[in-house]
Amino acid sequence: MAKSKQQQEAHGIGQIEHQLNNQMETAAEIQGQSKLDQEIKKAAHSHIDQLNELSE
Fold this sequence. Notes:
Blueprint: H1 2-31, H2 35-55
């Protein structure tokens, strides 16, 4: 059961990260993207990739 809960939590985190990424992309389209925003986006994608590897 603990594994199931961990998978649900990871899935929920993934959904939140996906939503935040969409919001960042929309904001960048509206106001342009700063270098800091680009670095944050890159770090977020790296984190998502690591979570995906752990969940497989």
